[in-house]
Amino acid sequence: MTSGIFFHDVSHTYRPPHGRPVLALERVSLEVREREFLALLGPSGCGKSTLLYLLGGFLPIEVGGITVAGKPIAGPGSDRGIVFQNFALYPWKTVRQNILYGLEKQKRPRAERERRARELIELVHLRGFENSYPAQLSGGMKQRVAIARTLAVDPAILLMDEPFGALDAQTRALMHEELLAIIGRTPKTVVFVTHDVREAVYLADRVAVMSARPGRIKEIVDTTFAGAKGPEIARTSEFAEKVEHLWGLVRGEAILAQERREP
Amino acid sequence: MRYLPLLPLAVAWEAAPRLGLVSPDVLPPVSAVLRAWLRLLQDGDLAVHGLSSLQNLAAGLALGIVVGVALGVSMAWYSPVEILINPLIRVLYPLPRSALIPVMILWFGLGAASKIAAVFLGCLLPVVMGAFNGARGVEQVLIWSALAAGAKRREVLWEVVLPAAMPEILAGVRNALALSFILLVAAELITSQRGMGYLISSFGEGGAYDAMFAAVLTVSAVGFFADRLYLLLMGLALRWRG
Questions:
Q1: Most-buried pick from A88, A109, B132, B212 (CB within 10 A)?
Q2: For chain B, how many structural domains are there in total?
Q3: Interface predicted TM-score (ipTM) of this complex, two decimals
């Protein structure tokens, strides 16, 4: 029995409180294999985040179906942890309390919760900041707390919605290394939304390119490279070719998306 | 330091009636007011009436906070409640709160109940608005994060929506605190047998103006320190804002 994810002919209409409904996703079918790192790449407004929110169970699935390990999605669940672009930390909780939240919801014994929180604080290099509030942290540190909070309950699937989009280039590069190291240690199925081509090629095993609205899967590109993932990969010609190819696919869609925004 | 300009003002207050610039009947010198204040303190008048006022104020305010937060948050969380309550709030918003005092006296009598009701009604709106805006403004992703962590809807309300709305709730409560003093004293001025408002009006009618001023200053000082204390506590409760 596979614990993969299947999107089957998923369409989604976004209905703003005022104005006309917009078809955000059109008949998206996609498989995410178990323990695969899949990037959803596309221009802004192509519905890639919507696809992630549907998988997270945050939005109702109206047309089509999504299954995880063979079971259809029925609302959010702790088997699918999510990390958002703007961290979504509880600002009134300290670093430690933020990380403990999910563990408390799972009613784990107190000693185990504390131990697990300490482990995760170590994992994301935040020792000494346990009792700091999010407002006192830098963007990179906030996102490390968010990742730790999500990993604390050990979800089989990790959903990431442009998690490094709000960070500066250096911090982002460091976070890429940390994320790969973390996933290397505790393998997970990752669905990673981004509009950054290099980020997608660098992190993912496969990249699903989405078209401009209404979002469809345009092409899926294998982005595994011989040898271990690491910064050296990014300097190979193979890497450059993949980036070039994907950029070619995304570029046209980005232009389309831009033209469509102008009335 | 910021309150230093009060000093020359007090000197001017003392000097004006003594120099005959104003009649001491209209404005008793500040020294006479202070003497009257000490007398009130020794007599126990201040304790009895001050305590009575504070009790009614605390009861009305507490009731206003509890009901106001519950109403405001449910309006933001359950849209039927909003559809039902929002028009009522819009209609009542421009109404001067003190206009309700006679109605409260009609319904709840001349005693403490009508004072508490007046304070309660006056405090309700700012708290409801604070709680509503705060709860409605909670970021969607905070709620989603909690749901993904395994929280139930009810838990999300207590553990995410309420704390996230807290800055706006506490700001609403601060407005309510200021209003509660106004409403309580106004209600006591209209009719009562106890409380600071009663003290002010009975001294005024009896011509004991120094004591009347002493009572007025007491209310103002208590109001001022209540607000300072509140700000201090609010800063502590919201220290996470950095």
A1: B132
A2: 1
A3: 0.90
